[in-house]
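Researcher: Please predict.
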Amino acid sequence: MTSIPATKAAITALKIEQRVERDVKAGIPEVDRRNHTESEESMRSYVVREIIGRVHANRQRELDRELADRSAVDIRQLHQELKNTESLVEKTVAGRLANLVSGLKQRAQEYSAQRMDLEMFRQRNGLTREAVYRESRILHLSVIFFIVIMETVLNAFFLSKGSELGLVGGFFQAFIISMINLGFAVFLAFSLRHCFHHNPARKFCAGTLFVGVLFAAAIFVLSVGHYREALETNPFAASQMAMTTLLAQPLGIQDFNSWIMVVVSGIAVILLTAKFFVVDDRYPGYTAITRRVKQQQQAWREAHEDAIESVNEMAEDIQETISDTEKTIRAQFIQFKASIERSEEIHRHYHEDIVKAQGLLDELVRYYQSYSARMMNRRSAYFGELLRFELDKLPQLNTTGLEQHKRDLITFEAVMEELDQSYCDAVDVVNCRCEAIQASLGALVDKLELDNGLRRA
């Protein structure tokens, strides 16, 4: 502030040299003068207004900003929330626990209803054994796919000779034959499974259907052989010739390759039928209801596990909230303390700025006196008492709230001393409450299983 550029700027702004010339003409500067001239007083007014006034405004804005930041601190409220963790846990648990209990009861009722349906199914159909079926449907479908492809490839080789498209045409014909055989296998397995039903009427109908489908499958397989044999004689009239020979002599196939096709198709039908039959229990409907019971059993187990996991997640969320609160308290305390130190530093810097402003004023007055002495063509005989600021008239910084915040800092320091213990107590409350909830859920599961007959007492 007392640098040469600042002094020159003040001299220019005050037009000191013009003032001196005016004062000399008016005879104002006198030797050994003790009183200050109006020009000298204007210098003090200029420094107070232009220098100290601007510095005061900047420093006051900084103080107001620090005050606003400190006023936004809520360490007391956050610490009180940390102490009231139990009420937070109860508020969070209330709704969550009600939903978990409702979900467990619903799952238990659904599982119990499916088990009851299974028992009724067993009693109604006279079953005393467990259902026997294949768990993996993917393996089942892969085996069926393999059989169909193998049959298609083998038959395509034999049908390619009489096809206009060669091997490609033979492949499509063989694929159609395999799909028809697959349909026969499905109906054969379905009817064979219903032959084990305890209802005599259903058994008779299933047996009749099985015989009918088996006969149709045998006729179709033989017709494939006749068609293959007719391809050797006349590919363009193979279908009519095959039907004629089939009706006249069903087993009158003379070509060896045609018999191979009959055997391959027959084996494929048998294998597919066996596969469709063994994939489920031989008693119709037993596998489906057993699968539903097992799905409900798995859903019941998952509901119990999800409930426990939900409690753990809830505990983790609350603990994370507590941890965030503890970190926020520490961060706000550090900021609060640093803000007080910055406010004191701003106040100290302002007093330093006043000292610098006094130095600038001294330089201006000396310049005025020196220049006036040169103008009067004599040695300056007066460098008497320089101008001094009237400190009581200088603008004062408004430090409202700083002393109160210093007292608050003492309180906050006491809060920080017990913060670690408050945090540990809050975490212990969460852990104990969640352990109690898990124990109550375990007891509820046991009670639901007993009440709904899901296990023996």
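Model: The mean pLDDT is 81.
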